[in-house]
Amino acid sequence: MLQLRQTTLLLLIAAALGLSGCYGRARVAFRAQVPSTVTVTAAPPAVRPAATQPPKPGDDA
Q1: What is the pLDDT of residue 9?
Q2: How far is CA 20 from each of CA 10, 11, 17, 23, 28, rounded to the nearest angstrom?
Q3: How is 9-24 classified by DSSP, letter by letter?
Q4: Is this structure's pTM higher than 0.85?
């Protein structure tokens, strides 16, 4: 019975280490594809002037 528990524990540890290794390699490969800087290739849209109301009669401004 003790031998079965030890074998099961060793298999679980080996599986966990294998999965963590695969995850680490996949994460490194994915990070290599993501650019570290972002380049802006287009100018921002032009700023529209605020809507103005026509002058009221009697305003001399």
Answers
A1: 83
A2: 15, 14, 5, 5, 12
A3: HHHHHHHHHHHHHHHH
A4: no
